[in-house]
Amino acid sequence: MKRDNFSSKFGVIAAAAGSAIGLGNIWKFPYITGQNGGAAFILVYLICIILVGTVVMVSELALGRRAQSNPSGAFKKLKPSSRWNYTGYLAVATSFIILSFYSIIAGWVLSYFHSSITGKLINVAPNELTSYFENLVGNTPMMLFFTLLVIGITAFIVISGIQDGIEKYSKILMPVLLLTLIILIIRSITLDGAVKGLEFLFKPDFSQLTTQSVLEALGHSFYSLSLGMGIIITYGSYIKKEEDLVSLSLKVIAADTIIALMAGIVIFPAVFAYGFEPGAGPSLVFITLPAVFQGMPFGSFFETLFFLLIGIAAITSTISLLEVSVTFITEEFHMSRKKATILLSIGVFLLSIPSTLSFGIWSGVKIFSLSIFDLFDYIASYIFLPLSGILTCIFVGWVWGTKDAFNEISSDGLYPFSGYKVYNTTIKYIAPIAIFIILLYSTNIIKL
Ligand code: PFF
After folding, report:
1. With left for phi above 0 and alpha for psi between -120 and 50, is residue 367 left, alpha or beta?
2. Pocket lining: 18 vs ligand 1, CB cutoff 6 Å
3. pTM value?
4. Residue 176 CA, distance from chain mean position
5. Is the CB–ligand 1 distance for residue 64 below 6 Å?
């Protein structure tokens, strides 16, 4: 069977950046920056992205492209008769589990988008926004509906394949996302008092920086670039040999980072201008910002744009998450793309039900003192993801070998570059050790 391919350079960049740019950039990055003291945290984050992010991304792309296969097939092809294909299974399982709860948060966003566009959200009294949010996420039938909507839109795009689905829609959605962000930035930085927010973002105060924030920055850089869960391996397998993987990775990483910073430039000047606290945490977007928009002229319009922006960012990420399992099932079980997409979408929806219930009638159910939603997040994002990241580095560095990897990265010498030594050291030692430390820290094996 002939494999589909991305057809244009812009298409590949839009799709890979679409995966990387998601809730992580527009929801999580601003709030962890807010909690960790702003600019100093951003600086550490940039170092992590450049040092570890680039090397791991380039390696995952090379792995996929060389093997022309889904993650488990890729490990199997490059090291036959070994158990390395289990690393591929792990990556596929991770992306599938992440999709089940990522779709729930994306569902909250669509619901907020809906209540912004109908003008309902802007009329909720500021002191009632917290209970508005709690009632909403606790309303299980409604949340299941919005989660299903997210999964439905995702499946609709994935079913059409790489060129006619993912590439086509990413090429439309990513420019819309950028345009929306630019409009919001102009609004935010022209507010009275916006300067304080910009200072918070760009004037480093190292006294706020703790070891914990460094580890958080490292972990987030991995998540934000969609590494360690088979996505970049899968997308790599659809990239032509004539593409320059290093330049592609740098562009995707630059786009991911710039968009995260732009999201910060939208959020913090507005938060400071209206006298709110930057360190609100996860509720920053769902509780603080709606209050900010209420004070703003044409607030309802900007609020709608803002939730549209996060909605787009989330959907271009969910399509990449679903694509991993779809490629895996079509290739390993010889199933049609359509059938695989439909079955997997049903599976993801079913898996999302317990997490949704954990905000409603199952809110009292705790496993290891975590709610079901938090447990899924914990297992996938804090255990499986780093584990699969470490194994991928070890595989590329020690099993497949950096010489072969380097050859694939340079398209067999078509795009020579001189970083072999740095690449070799990073993928063999620095990256796996750094990720291992995140794993120890996030599983509480080391405490800070
Ligand atoms: N990178 C995306 C984000 O920052 O929101 C999230 C994500 C997408 C994580 C896809 C993992 C993934 F496989």
Report:
1. beta
2. no
3. 0.93
4. 18
5. no
